[in-house]
Structures are given as structure tokens and as C-alpha cells.
Design a protein that fits this description.
The complex is a heterodimer of chains A (303) and B (532). With 303 residues, chain A is of the alpha/beta class. Chain A has 11 helices and 13 strands. In chain A, helix 3 runs parallel beside helix 5 and helix 4 packs antiparallel against helix 5. The longest helix of chain A is centred in the middle third of the chain and has 16 residues. Chain A is elongated. The chains are: A alpha/beta (303), B mainly alpha (532). Chains A and B meet through helix 2, strand 5 and helix 3 of A and helix 12 and helix 16 of B.
Chain lengths: 303, 532
């Protein structure tokens, strides 16, 4: 599969502030790629560089194999973008904006436009000045989804949507994925990422700290184990990859790295298992681990 | 007084937000009145010359329309007359912007929601912005008083002039406070308040300039005229300050009444539904939608102004050209074969050119607002290139002034009588030629937009004021003759076609070349900088 987005060692500074400090990102054709990171990590800066709005100071950013700074406008025919903070022209109606954006992207599917307006329950006759944040996002989303493009770049597109609309959004993205479109989705809504995305890149302080499929990422985090044993389990503490071990009477609690599971299970079975609860790593755990300040070094060690 | 809680804090915030602009305003206005005195003293050194000037001005409705009546033929009287209208207009703009930004501007941007959720009373933001505007107007007025008294002018006159400046500022602060209650858009509120200012200037103009004494009372409907009618350094009319105070108080009371009756974010003029689908084909069509209203209103106002000026030009006295005041007037504004009427038209064309030059500045500032506001980012994520987006706006910065100049030229030419000393074709050509120096100004502002967009607002103000004021005020203060100092202005190089100069393509082509080079440089740098 070819890469729709390929970013390597990307650097961008604003004055003295290093917004991107050697960022890598790879989005393959046909995948829904989640782009995650705490506030201020550099997600929107990366997207703006990919759109050719900002110029990078180092490294390389390729969109459809070309440089977005010099070839931006031609590349834009193949993508639709929904900004995180949608600002529209206050004196135009929502319907006018949808049509305008569709037209300057190179065409809009009228049937799909009508069906999306219905599904997202948008009143297209209202002036943009009177729309709430969620409704402005709907305008940008409808226009993007109704455009005939290969790539959707969505920067926190559902942050203002209600749960019902969020569900509609998920359906729409699933449909786009089935059509073979590529999606770069920046989001803080983990359930959305879990439901939609094939692969995930997590960035922090202008660098990528993790990338892979969700299954691969889960592999890097620890399984929580609570076991009630017949007798004492010998040697658990010595197994590499066992953390936060607590033994009180016959109860054992620990968080175990994927590579250590085998040894731990053997040791527990030897002691005689009465009861065992294994909790797979949640996405929340995964994100918390990476979002926290010292996450960089930990994930580095995990690789 | 829980409704006013937080006013002090918000007033300090308003001053803090506007501090650089307000300080620059204060400096510039005070320098204009104080420095204007010394440069006028050089221009009219003898009492005979001053008397002669007063006779010429007051004997002509056309001159009175232009700057208002001259009440006292002294240096300070001439200074108050010469700088007054300009100062009153600028202080009014300052007050309008300060009030509108901190009331409706904050409300529209959603900031006031955040502020009002704190321990802040319903009327605190309105009160605070009025307090900030009044304080700024008063400070500028009193600094002018101090400056004028400091150079040894009559104390009473200095106080009257300073208070007149402050009073006009307060009046328009009140106007803006009312306008901010009427509409939910800050832009519309500012446009409405500045519209009142334009009407005030026009009423003064018609009232002072009319031959017909039965409509001279129109001046008294104009707040700008009130400032002049204080008659500083002549026969000071102190009672006018009572009129100003009462009217300001009434306007403020109306604003509070309206504020008490509306929702946060709401206006009295409700938003209407529009079309569900659009036919806007691309960036140029979109820019037309954004710029057309202001442009068309402006063009209509320009045409009306031109008709009015043409009709009052006939009242110009057939004075001998050997009087120094008239000779100076002819030398400055006229052409090689200028008679009084032709020179008057040249002066009008210059004034219209300067005011029309504000239009492209507004267009470029709006383009910058679209860039920083996020809508431009959305636009550029499509197949629209940066250059095309910039062009879509700059097209109106270029064609807009041409339309405004054409409106003046056509309306003025149509209003001419066969007996007038000016040829319709000359007037039309002279007006159209004024578009070229405006392009130079627009292109210079575009260069700032491309090179240093953060400085755009400040640079726009500096460029415009330099062009408008350097020859008249700042240059003479520095000891430069008008004709030398004015070389900084691109209008300087346009042939005075109405005044009898031959039409020459050389200066026009030269100015056009400068404009093209500046615009190309602006586009070059804009394409190489970060967007947003």
C-alpha cells in the first residue's frame, strides 16, 4: 500500500518555541488513522503543514508523495479538511457555505449533500453567525463528506457534536472507509478512536511517542491481574515485566507486561489457582501512560 | 449597584487592550493642534494676511462648507478652524471603536459570556467601555489644552478647544453605545456609528455651505458642528458643553434602556433566514458578497458628495488672485492655469481621494481578519491557491477605489452647468486619475500584509495619516514647505487636470508601476510566509 501521508523528522519552530521536534507520521491509503496527543502536542501544526499553510523548518512532509508547500493547491483537489475550530462567513447561510466549499474542492454530490443534511439534522437556511459550535462543525463535515475526495483530514471534528450526532459521524466514517477513502482523524474521544481507527499515532511535545494498530499498542501496556491462590506463589517478583506486585494472604495483584504473561501464568498455576481476573489494558490506560509527562522514556523502553 | 459590579476592572481591561492605539492617538492629535499652531504662524505671518484669509473663507459658502466658518482671524483662531474638523472626526472614530470593541465586539466573540459569568453586573461591560472612551477623550482634550496653554495661547480658548475635542468624543461614544445595542454584529454596529459620523459631517457641510440661510440650521443637527460652534479662541460659547453633556447623557440612557431589554448576544434587529443552497461560485464571488454592501453605499455617498460640491462651487467669489491666502490655496491645490473654481475642484478631488483610500485599507484588513479567524484556512484547504485567495480580495481593493473615483467623476460631471469654469471631461478624467495613487497606497498596505501581517493595522494608520497629513501638518512643523513635504504623498504626482495641467501618462504610468511592484512584492512575501 502506498503512503498518503509520509512525515519524517518534521521540525517547526515559532520563535523560540519548538512546536514540532522531529515528528514522524505515516498514513497508508485506505486506512483510518488516529492522530492523538495532549493539547499543544503539535497535532494542528502538523495538519497545517500538511495543508501547505505553514512552512516547516526541517525534515520532510509528503502528501500524496508531493510537497504540500509547493504543490498544495493541486493536492487539495484530492482532500477535504475540517478544522478543529470551524470559523465560517457570518453573513452566509450554512447551505451556501456547503455549496461554496464543495465547488472550490472540485464538485459536490448533491444527493449525498441532501442526505447528510438530513442525517445531521442541520438547518441550512440559517446564517452562520447564528450557528453553535456543533452546527458549524456539521456544516464543515457535511461539505467534506459530500465532496468527492480521496483523503479526509479531520481535526477534532466531533468536539461540539451531541452523542446522537457523534453516532451518525461514526456511521459516516465507516461508510467512507468502506469506499476506500483515507482518513486522518485527530480526536480526544477514545471510544471514537477505538471504534473507527485502524492505526494510531500518539504524539507529545512535537514528537511521535507511539504508533501502530490498537492491538499492537495494547501489547505494549500491562494486563491487570487479580488472583486468589491455594498457596504462596514463589518467584513472582523475580519475573521481569511484573510491576506493582501486592501480596496479601492468598490474594495477588500485579500489572504484567505482555512478554511476562507466560511466566506469570505458569507461576500462578503452580501455586494453584482459586480464582483469576485478568483485565486487558484499556485505551485510557494506554493514553494516560503516553500523555503523562514522563511517558516518553517509558514508551521508548517498551519498544 | 450590583448591576455595575466589576466595572472598574473591566474599564482597566479596556484601557489595557487599547493602550498602544490610544497613546498613539493622543500623541498624534495633540501634536497636530500644538504643531499646527506654529506651522500656521509661519504661513500667515501678518495680521493683514490673516484678515484676508478670514474674509475669503467667510465670504465663500464653498470654503465654509469645506472646513467650516473661521471665527477669529488670529493664529490660534485659524488653528482651531484648520485642525478642528479633522480632530473632531478622529476623536469620534476613536470613541466609536473603543466603545464598540469592548461591548458588541466582545459579545460577538463570546468573550463577554465568559466575563459576565464572573461576578460582573449586567451593565458593567457597557459602563466600563463608556468610561474608558470618555476617559480617553477627556485625556486627549486636556492634553491638548495643556499643550496649547503651554505654548502661551489664551487659557480660556485652550480650555474651550480641549473640552470641545473631549465633548465630540463623548458624543460619539454615546452614539456607539446605542448602535452596539441595536445589532448583533460588531461590524454593523461600528458601521452604523460611523454612518452617523458621516451624516454629521455632511449636515455640517450642507448647513455651512448652503447659500440658502433657511437651511443653515442643518449644521446644528451635526455633532461635528457643535465642536466648531464652541468657537474656541474667538467668542467661546460655553453653553454648548451643556448641550453636549445633556445629549451624551441621553444617548447613554438610551443605551442602558436597550441593554436592559435584550439578551446577551441578541440585537433589536433579528437575523433572517437565507437560502438553503448557494450559487457562490468561487473566491471572487465570495469576496464580492463580503465587500459589496460597503462599496455600494460608499459609491453612492461619493456621488452625492460630488453633486453637492459641484453645486456649491458656483458660490466661490471671483476674488483677485493676488491675495496671499488665495495664492497659497491656488499654489497648493490648483494646476498651472487654475482659477478659483478649478482649484477648489482639485482640493475636493484630493479630499475625496484621501477618503476613498480608506476603502482598500478596510478590504485588506478584512482579508487579514479572515486569515486569522479561520475561514481563510478552510478556504485554502481547497483547490483555491493562496494567490487566488489574495487576489479575490485585492481585486476589490483595486477596483473599489476606481468605482468610488468614477462615481465622483461621473456625478460631478453631470452636475456641472455649461457656464461653469470646469470641463466635464476634465473633471471625470481628474477623478479617475486619483484612483492610481490610491492603488499605490493599497499596494503598500498589501506589502505589509505579506511581509509583517501583525503590524497591518498600525502600518495602515501610519501610511494613511502620513499621506494625508505630512504635507499639511507634519512637514511644515519640521520646517518643510508644503510642496516639498507633500512629495511623500502619491497624490502629489497626479497632474491637476481640472486645474489646467495637461494630461500626462508619464506620472500615471510611474505611479502604476510603483503600485504594481509593491503589490507583486506583497504577493511574493505572502506566498512565502506562514498562513494564519
Amino acid at each position: 500500500m502506498s503512503d498518503v501521508i509520509l512525515v519524517s523528522d518534521l521540525k517547526k519552530r515559532f520563535g523560540k518555541f519548538m512546536a514540532l521536534d522531529g515528528l514522524d507520521l505515516q498514513v497508508k491509503a485506505g486506512e483510518v488513522h488516529a492522530f492523538l496527543g495532549p493539547n499543544g502536542a503539535g497535532k494542528s501544526t502538523t495538519i497545517r503543514i500538511l495543508l501547505g499553510l505553514l512552512r516547516h523548518d526541517g525534515g520532510e512532509a509528503l502528501l500524496f508523495g508531493s510537497d504540500p508547500w509547493s504543490k498544495g493547491t493541486e493536492l487539495h483537489r484530492r482532500l477535504a479538511y475540517v478544522p478543529g475550530d470551524v470559523a465560517l462567513w457570518p453573513n452566509l447561510t450554512g447551505g451556501e457555505v456547503i455549496d461554496l466549499l464543495g465547488r472550490i474542492r472540485g464538485g459536490i454530490d448533491q444527493q449525498r449533500r441532501a442526505s447528510l443534511i438530513e442525517r445531521f439534522e442541520l438547518d441550512p437556511r440559517k446564517k452562520c453567525a447564528t450557528y453553535s459550535k456543533g452546527n458549524r462543525q456539521k456544516v464543515a463535515l457535511i461539505s467534506a463528506l459530500a465532496s468527492d475526495v480521496e483523503l479526509l483530514i479531520l481535526d477534532e471534528p466531533t468536539s461540539g457534536l451531541d452523542p446522537l450526532m457523534e453516532a451518525i459521524f461514526r456511521q459516516c466514517i465507516a461508510e467512507e472507509k468502506a469506499k476506500g477513502r483515507t482518513v486522518l482523524l485527530s480526536s480526544h474521544i477514545l471510544s471514537e478512536v477505538e471504534a473507527l481507527c485502524d492505526r494510531v499515532s500518539i504524539i507529545r511535545a512535537g514528537r511521535r511517542v507511539e504508533t501502530g494498530t490498537l492491538a499492537e499498542l495494547r501489547h505494549l501496556t500491562r494486563t491487570q491481574i487479580v488472583a486468589h491462590l491455594h498457596g504462596p506463589a514463589a518467584g513472582l517478583a523475580k519475573i521481569e515485566g511484573v510491576h506493582d506486585l501486592e501480596v496479601s494472604g492468598n490474594e495477588v495483584r500485579a500489572s504484567v507486561e505482555a512478554g511476562a504473561l507466560d511466566g506469570v501464568m505458569r507461576a500462578l498455576a503452580t501455586a494453584g489457582l482459586q480464582n483469576l481476573v485478568c483485565q486487558p489494558p484499556t485505551l485510557e490506560d494506554l493514553f494516560m501512560q503516553h500523555y503523562q509527562a514522563d511517558a516518553g522514556s517509558r514508551s521508548g523502553a517498551g519498544k | 449597584m450590583s448591576e455595575l459590579k466589576g466595572t472598574g476592572l473591566l474599564a482597566r481591561l479596556a484601557i489595557r487592550r487599547g493602550r498602544i492605539g490610544l497613546a498613539a492617538y493622543a500623541f498624534f492629535l495633540v501634536m497636530t493642534v500644538v504643531g499646527g499652531t506654529s506651522s500656521l504662524a509661519k504661513m500667515y505671518p501678518t495680521q493683514a494676511m490673516r484678515d484676508e484669509l478670514a474674509t475669503t473663507i467667510n465670504g465663500s459658502y464653498a470654503f465654509k462648507a469645506f472646513i467650516g466658518p473661521l471665527f477669529a482671524p488670529s493664529i490660534e483662531g485659524i488653528m482651531a478652524w484648520r485642525t478642528g474638523e479633522f480632530i473632531y472626526l478622529l476623536i469620534a472614530v476613536m470613541a466609536v471603536l473603543t466603545v464598540a470593541r469592548n461591548t458588541r465586539g466582545d459579545e460577538e466573540a463570546g468573550r463577554q459570556e465568559l466575563v459576565r459569568a464572573g461576578i460582573v453586573g449586567r451593565f458593567a461591560p457597557l459602563t466600563a467601555s463608556l468610561a474608558a472612551a470618555f476617559a480617553a477623550a477627556l485625556a486627549i482634550g486636556l492634553l491638548s489644552t495643556a499643550g496649547l496653554a503651554g505654548i502661551g495661547l489664551d487659557t480660556n480658548g485652550s480650555i474651550a478647544f480641549g473640552l470641545a475635542i473631549a465633548g465630540v468624543g463623548c458624543l460619539f461614544g454615546g452614539v456607539a453605545a446605542v448602535a452596539a445595542q441595536l445589532t448583533s454584529s460588531a461590524r454593523t454596529a461600528i458601521a452604523m456609528a460611523l454612518g452617523v459620523l458621516a451624516v454629521a459631517a455632511t449636515l455640517r457641510f450642507i448647513g455651512d455651505g448652503s447659500e440658502n440661510p433657511s437651511i443653515a440650521w442643518l449644521s446644528w443637527l451635526s455633532f461635528i458642528s457643535w465642536g466648531q460652534q464652541v468657537q474656541p479662541f474667538a467668542n467661546e460659547q460655553w453653553w454648548i458643553f451643556g448641550l453636549m453633556g445633556a445629549t451624551t447623557g441621553t444617548l447613554v440612557a438610551i443605551a442602558y434602556l436597550l441593554q436592559a431589554r435584550r439578551d446577551l448576544g441578541g440585537g433589536l434587529l433579528a437575523a433572517r433566514a437565507g437560502p438553503a443552497s448557494g450559487r457562490i461560485a468561487g473566491p471572487v464571488a465570495l469576496a464580492w458578497r463580503q465587500h459589496r454592501l460597503l462599496l455600494l453605499i460608499w459609491a453612492a455617498a461619493s456621488a452625492i458628495t460630488a453633486i453637492f460640491f459641484t453645486s456649491i462651487a458656483r458660490t466661490l467669489p471671483a476674488v483677485a488672485t493676488n491675495s496671499p491666502a488665495v495664492a497659497e490655496f491656488l499654489r497648493r491645490y490648483g494646476g498651472s492655469g487654475a482659477n478659483m473654481e478649478a482649484a477648489f475642484f482639485e482640493a475636493i478631488l484630493l479630499a475625496v481621494g484621501l477618503s476613498s483610500a480608506i476603502y482598500p485599507i478596510i478590504v485588506i484588513l478584512r482579508m487579514r481578519v479572515e486569515e486569522t479567524g479561520g475561514a481563510g484556512e478552510l478556504m485554502l484547504s481547497t483547490s483555491v491557491s493562496r494567490l487566488r485567495w489574495m487576489f479575490s480580495h485585492f481585486l476589490f481593493a483595486a477596483l473599489g477605489p476606481l468605482l468610488l473615483c468614477a462615481a465622483v467623476g461621473v456625478a460631478g460631471a453631470l452636475a456641472l452647468n455649461p457656464g461653469d469654469g470646469v470641463q466635464p471631461a476634465d473633471l471625470l478624467l481628474g477623478a479617475l486619475a486619483r484612483a492610481v495613487p490610491i492603488w499605490v497606497i493599497a499596494a503598500a498596505i498589501l506589502l505589509v500584509f505579506g511581509l509583517a501581517p501583525r503590524l497591518l493595522l498600525a502600518a495602515s494608520a501610519v501610511v494613511w495619516l502620513m499621506v494625508a497629513m505630512f504635507g499639511e501638518v507634519i512637514g511644515p512643523m519640521a520646517g518643510l514647505d508644503y510642496w516639498t513635504a507633500n512629495r511623500i504623498s502619491p497624490f502629489h504626482y497626479v497632474p491637476h487636470i481640472v486645474g489646467g495641467d495637461a494630461f500626462s501618462l508619464v506620472p500615471i504610468a510611474g505611479l502604476f508601476g510603483v503600485a504594481a511592484a509593491l503589490a507583486a512584492a506583497g504577493a511574493f512575501f505572502f506566498q512565502r510566509r506562514d498562513f494564519g
